[in-house]
Amino acid sequence: xxxxxxxxxxxxxxxxxxxxxxxxxxxxxxxxxIATGLDEAGMPLIEVTHGDxxxxxxxxxxFPAHTDEEYLSAVIxxxxxxxxxxxxxxxxxxxxxxKMAKDLGVSTIRVATHxxxxxxSEQHIGMAAKMEMDTVGFLMMAHMVSAxxxxxxxxxxxxxxxNCIYCTDSAGYMLPEEVKQKIxxxxxxxxxxxxxxxxxxxxxxxxxxxxxxxVEAGANRIDGSVAGLGAGAGNTPLEVFVAVLDRxxxxxxxxxxxxxxxxEDLVVPMMxxxxxxxxxxxxxxxxxxxxxxLLFAKRAEATYGIQxxxxxxxxxxxxxxxxxxxxxxxxxxxxxxxxxxx
Amino acid sequence: MSKKLKAAIxxxxxxxxxxxxxxxxxxxxxxxxxxxxDPESEGLKRAQEFGIKVSTTGxxxxxxxxxxxxxxxxxxxxxxxxxxxxxxxxNELGVIMIDLTPAAIGPFCVPPVNLADHAKNLEMNVNxxxxxxxxxxxxxxxxxxxxxxxxxEIVATVSSRSVGPGTRQNIDxxxxxxxxxxxxxxxxxxxxxxxxxNPAEPPLMMRDTxxxxxxxxxxxxxxxxxxxxxVKEVQKYVPGYKLVNGPVFDGNKVSVFMxxxxxxxxxxxxxxxxxxxxxxxxxxxxxxAEEAEAGSIELPAR
Lengths: 342, 302
What we know:
heterodimer, A: alpha/beta, TIM Barrel, Helicase, Ruva Protein, domain 3, 2 domains, eight-stranded parallel beta barrel, globular, B: alpha/beta, Dihydrodipicolinate Reductase, domain 2, six-stranded parallel sheet, NAD binding (chain B), NAD (chain B), oxidoreductase (chain B), Acetylaldehyde_DH_C (chain B), Acetaldehyde dehydrogenase (chain B)
């Protein structure tokens, strides 16, 4: 299917999802430099918060180098054209965090729930819509349920006031056919004015292909991350995606060379480890596990001597969802006891 | 004269019915009234079958009978919106109110931590915090009674089936109330609460992780001993309260991993989050009854 001339709005994740890969330790200077580079390359939307969203600062997910307030206050005033978004997971962040973000100049709020639990987002989506923010409902781990279930939950968020709905492949498990089916059903059944988005992870190497499938099926917002900096094997690498959109003559509004340079000159040198499909990241995609579990599982392996791969497969079997990082150490302790290692 | 205190339950839903079933086994509390607003409600019918008097016109239907039936304690399992009125009407008549809603107009009560104080002071309205609070605050307190806790954080993971529409519509109330009680009752200087809802089938048992950051190097032996003691205290009213792993020490961080299995009275066993609320509510009323029997408190004169 041709997407020639189709307008695609790109949304950079390197300063939010990338926080997972950096254990939330990105410095203020790094944030500002990368955001400025992206702004100059024509990136319309840039997400900035703790990896687990507003209020994510915790022992459970990791304390960041700076608070959400500090990051947002540093980045937003420096933007010439780009808008800044913030993620919020009900159960972690609250309406107070949302108001703080709005006061600091955040224009887009993305309220994220597990793909079956949209009804916990009513107060946050309602408040954001009331404050006339660009309000996105973000259905995570969407591979775990049918397209019909995603639609049912998307309709709840649409009713609460979301003007855009995301089908989110948090585990990087989906293949292009599934993306097409899910986005296609949302496009057919939601309000025609409701925008659709896709957020991919590259754990099976499908980030770019899945994002193209999403655009073909009717999505107009695509998340990705410059140099792929994100949880697991990273997000859809934006500079690659831009080149592909270019080849397909889609309308993306990004300067390819400039975004390549941000990736190569600013983001890659900052990485703590290469963002690549190692066996553990591959296991996330293969077993359908939340991408930010990766580094926690590696740490548990180092501490308790249980292979990260074994931990991730078992967490997938148990049906864990986003936010259950505490189960990783718990499971590692239990498995280490069973093996007589502790 | 019977030493049992006579009780009313307001709200014949899942929580109210589970509470009724536990109460029928109690040596200290006798259920007499179940209060609802819908004559057709399953919960009221069930209560009637158990031989309990029912009001179908809310607390107003109970009020004229409070003195003649000598109702001394009431459990409110309705919603925060109506709790204040319910409490006012019944407190006026000398009825002690156990608040299972998030209204929290009275002090927080987590039985093994501060119930004894509330009973001695004859607090006429006590609030049972949240399910996550009941499951985790005893562990925060177990650490903070050994040494100063700079920061306490709890993560409650509950099955999707056990989270009702009220909690879902106002999930911020859970995080706000629980983090407040981690400080006020748990004794952490700063508190944080996170709730995760998991839809897996079969439903997962309630899981709780408690992290405490101590100000000074943790006294591992003393904290381990204190945590194990506290687990035993909670097990007195929630037998399925289980220490799965920990305490684990990492620098000044102390982590404890819990699982809460319910008794399976009316609510399913996996809903340990709801069971620990009803069990804690009942335990609270029992303590008031025990103190009254021992003569250490004087119930309002009638």
